[in-house]
From TrEMBL:
<dbReference type="GO" id="GO:0006108">
    <property type="term" value="P:malate metabolic process"/>
</dbReference>
<dbReference type="InterPro" id="IPR012302">
    <property type="entry name" value="Malic_NAD-bd"/>
</dbReference>
<dbReference type="Pfam" id="PF03949">
    <property type="entry name" value="Malic_M"/>
</dbReference>
<dbReference type="Pfam" id="PF00390">
    <property type="entry name" value="malic"/>
</dbReference>
<dbReference type="InterPro" id="IPR046346">
    <property type="entry name" value="Aminoacid_DH-like_N_sf"/>
</dbReference>
<dbReference type="InterPro" id="IPR002505">
    <property type="entry name" value="PTA_PTB"/>
</dbReference>
<dbReference type="InterPro" id="IPR042112">
    <property type="entry name" value="P_AcTrfase_dom2"/>
</dbReference>
<dbReference type="Pfam" id="PF01515">
    <property type="entry name" value="PTA_PTB"/>
</dbReference>
<dbReference type="GO" id="GO:0051287">
    <property type="term" value="F:NAD binding"/>
</dbReference>
<keyword id="KW-0560">Oxidoreductase</keyword>
<dbReference type="InterPro" id="IPR036291">
    <property type="entry name" value="NAD(P)-bd_dom_sf"/>
</dbReference>
<dbReference type="GO" id="GO:0046872">
    <property type="term" value="F:metal ion binding"/>
</dbReference>
<feature type="domain" description="Malic enzyme NAD-binding">
    <location>
        <begin position="161"/>
        <end position="401"/>
    </location>
</feature>
<dbReference type="InterPro" id="IPR042113">
    <property type="entry name" value="P_AcTrfase_dom1"/>
</dbReference>
<feature type="domain" description="Malic enzyme N-terminal">
    <location>
        <begin position="16"/>
        <end position="149"/>
    </location>
</feature>
<dbReference type="InterPro" id="IPR045213">
    <property type="entry name" value="Malic_NAD-bd_bact_type"/>
</dbReference>
<dbReference type="InterPro" id="IPR037062">
    <property type="entry name" value="Malic_N_dom_sf"/>
</dbReference>
Length: 750
């Protein structure tokens, strides 16, 4: 089947379309319904009647955008009418929700008259926190947006104009930096004089381009003052009419520094590219075929050609989804009255800044493991980069507050944490630990320091003030990786193969001499990074360590267990995962270390896991799991968790609720605990789940992660004498940074 047939099936599968409405409050009982509707709903109605701004408090208005169109200029389809445009508007709603957790009502108005359209949209102001205008023909779109901005007290944003302007503006900021030119000196040529072109030209002026240096062309050639006087231009594009000599686009491109294409495919030749100034910048954004193909533009010259298109199959895609979800997110969260020029500039600058940073592994994987790194092939972030939300929305909100467009002021630092919570509970939990780590960074040994991921993680760890990383590995190799990645980073490196580390040899020898290790063998072993890092921590030269990225878990764990060992009050280490669901978190133990623990080990693991939960500001409630509920089955297997629960209940040092043995659903379903087993010591569902053996724990966490939609943090190693955490072999840089924060907080506690 072709793409169109697949798309038809996609949209027609039951239920048809791409969106639906879900309730956000309980509706399970008669009382729930009386609160949601009559008679309880009268309360918020009265409050809003007294104070209209209370609509933001009592309704979904603060997170609701209207995507409004008359279908008069649908991309690639033209004037197809309001009804036919509905799939596009639903799709816009999907993007709002997916990237910024914004709810959308799509509104298709069968109105060609601009005045009637404006009246209809303005009348809907009580419904929406903002309005996104979409696919409206020029020049009417200019007048419609201007009038709605004047009449409405919520943000009105025509994405076809400003989205392209903002994203290409971000690309321009980075391209100019790479070719070392000044914005104010640039000669810019536009192919296209419609809504997107005019809005982009205006925005480039806001960024610092001299309006006199902009030459705009349409299908009839250069927009000149002579054509304006003859009435050949509309009131909006005539502001870019010039006295430039020449008639055609080819003339306008001679000696131009920047070409911006928002017109038609294939209209630019290689000869026209060769006529441009040194190190030209080309944004050929016509879709689906750009004004000149990527390869042809790059091959036209020997100097640097920075090229962007509207296509996803080439570098530097100018994609509006990088803008509108996050701009509206920031505007909604300060209850902005408009999206002004300062807010748009802030969005472009935030995007430009983000493109200069190291790209997360998850983003690289999403784009086929492309080598995404700031340079001519990467001047704009990718839409699937989750950091866009945390950079653009706060920048927009901050600009709204600074310019008086905001109805309410917010703490931007706390706001970032709220945004992270929108993308998942795991981000909210990690933010707690990251904040703690940044309050008192510790010295962290990274055992596999000459691996690219570890170097990138170390840079982020140091840059964000999480810890003071020490890279264990070949100093020359680490230096080469830093240079290749273009990181501004002078890492602290310890090379086990050079220099004298007699003290570490003695530490290792003292620990292992009665385990069959000679001094000579200790000298050899210390050159292995895991033993080196373990001895470094044991000697007090580092406060914590990470290892395991290039080793199987057991082999990575062995050196720290041999050299550092378990804590004084612990006989066993254990591996714990934090699993984050939408509205709850649970800690799963043991998932990586103890194959068949007895009741004493289970009790010890429970205490260690409870202590770990408290580092995430979670008050532990522990359940010892089995396939039996409180003696319903009696055999050696069910007695083990039962006795572990009894040991914990009898321990005066245990200051958290614990019970067992119980089945997994009993532990996590409140009704079962409070109704069926009202005698349980757990008054609320458990958040620490201790499994009877490694097999059960490992199977469970993987099923919950893959089928239950849980986000996993870990494994986190508990029970060690000093902080040690063992990575998984496929961990990404983000995972390494997160475990570094956990290790730092662990070290602070000690």
């Amino acid at each position: 089947m072709g793409l169109e047939e697949d798309a038809l099936d996609y949209h027609s599968d039951d239920p048809p379309g791409k969106i639906e409405i879900r309730t956000t409050k309980p509706t399970n009982t008669q009382r729930d319904l009386s609160l949601a509707y009559s008679p309880g709903v009268a309360g918020p109605c009265r409050e809003i009647a007294t104070n209209a701004d209370d609509a933001y408090r009592y309704t979904a208005k603060e997170n609701l955008v209207g995507v409004v169109s008359n279908g008069s200029a649908v991309l690639g389809l033209g004037d197809i009418g309001a009804q036919a445009s509905k799939p596009v508007m639903e799709g816009k709603g999907v993007l709002f929700k997916r990237f910024a957790d914004i709810d959308v009502f799509d509104v298709e108005l069968d109105l060609e008259d601009p005045d009637a359209f404006v009246d209809a949209v303005a009348a809907m102001e009580p419904t929406f926190g903002g309005v996104n205008l979409e696919d409206i023909a020029a020049p009417e779109c200019f007048r419609i947006e201007e009038r709605l901005r004047e009449r409405m007290d919520v943000p009105v944003f025509h994405d076809d104009q400003h989205g392209t302007a903002i994203i290409s503006g971000a690309a321009l900021l980075n391209a100019v930096e790479l070719v070392e030119k000044d914005l104010s000196d640039l000669e810019v040529t536009f192919a296209g004089a419609g809504a997107a072109a005019v809005a982009t030209a205006r925005f480039f002026v806001s960024l610092g381009i001299d309006r006199a240096n902009i030459t705009m062309c349409d299908i009839d050639g250069i927009l000149t003052t002579e054509r304006a006087e003859a009435g050949d231009l509309n009131p909006y594009n005539r502001e870019f009419a010039s006295d430039r000599s020449g008639e055609e686009l080819a003339d306008a491109m001679v000696d131009a520094d920047v070409f911006v294409g928002l017109s038609a495919g294939g209209i630019v030749s290689q000869e026209m590219v060769r006529s441009m100034a040194d190190d030209p910048i080309l944004f050929a954004m016509a879709n689906p075929d750009p004004e000149i193909g990527y390869e042809r533009a790059k091959a036209a010259r020997d100097d640097t050609v920075i090229m962007a298109t509207g296509r996803s199959d080439y570098p530097n895609q100018v994609n509006n989804v990088l803008g509108f979800p996050f701009i509206f997110r920031g505007a909604l969260d300060v209850r902005a009255r408009q999206v002004n020029e300062a807010m748009k500039v802030a969005a472009a600058e935030a995007l430009a800044d983000l493109a200069r940073r190291d790209v997360p592994d998850a983003v690289r994987k999403a784009y086929g493991d492309q080598p995404l790194q700031f340079g001519p092939e990467y001047i704009i972030p990718k839409p699937l980069d989750p950091r866009v939300l945390f950079e653009v929305a706060p920048a927009v909100a901050g600009a709204a507050m600074e310019t008086g467009a905001a109805r309410t002021d917010i703490d931007l630092e706390a706001y970032v944490e709220r945004l992270e919570a929108r993308l998942g509970k795991s981000r909210e939990m990690m933010r707690i630990v990251l904040n703690k780590a940044q309050n008192e960074p510790q010295r962290l040994a990274l055992a596999e320091g000459d691996h690219e991921k570890i170097v990138r993680a170390a840079f982020q760890i140091a840059d964000r003030g999480i810890a003071d990383p020490v890279l264990i590995g070949d100093e020359d190799e680490i230096g080469s990786i830093v240079e290749e990645l273009g990181l501004e980073f002078d890492p602290d490196v310890a090379d086990p193969t050079t220099g004298s580390y007699d003290r570490y040899v003695e530490t290792l020898y003292d620990d292992r001499k009665r385990k069959g290790v000679t001094r000579t063998e200790a000298e050899e072993m210390i050159r292995e990074s895991n033993y080196f890092a373990s001895a470094m921590v044991e000697s007090g030269d580092a406060d914590a360590m990470l290892t395991g990225l290039t080793h199987h878990y057991p082999s990575a764990l062995r050196p720290p267990l041999q050299v550092i060992g378990t804590a004084e009050d612990a006989d066993y280490a254990a591996g714990v995962y934090l699993l984050a669901f939408k509205n709850r978190v649970i800690f799963v133990a043991d998932a990586t270390v103890n194959q068949n623990p007895d009741e004493a080990v289970l009790a010890e693991v429970t205490k260690h896991t409870a202590a770990l939960a408290r580092r995430f500001n979670v008050e532990p409630r522990a359940a010892l799991l089995s396939y039996s509920d409180f003696g319903s089955v009696d055999n050696d297997g069910t007695r083990k968790p039962r006795r572990a629960a009894e040991l914990l209940s009898e321990d005066p040092a245990v200051d958290f609720p614990v019970d067992g043995e119980m089945q997994a659903d009993t532990a996590v379903v409140e009704d079962m605990l409070t109704d069926t087993y009202e005698f349980s010591d757990l008054e609320e569902p458990a958040n620490v789940l201790v499994f009877p053996n490694l097999e059960a724990g490992n199977i469970c966490y993987k099923l919950l992660q893959r089928l239950g939609g849980a986000e996993a943090i870990g494994p986190m190693l508990v029970g060690m004498d000093k902080p040690v955490h063992v990575l998984q072999r496929d961990d990404e840089v983000t995972d390494i940074v997160n475990l570094a924060a956990v290790a730092t907080v662990d070290a602070q506690r000690r």
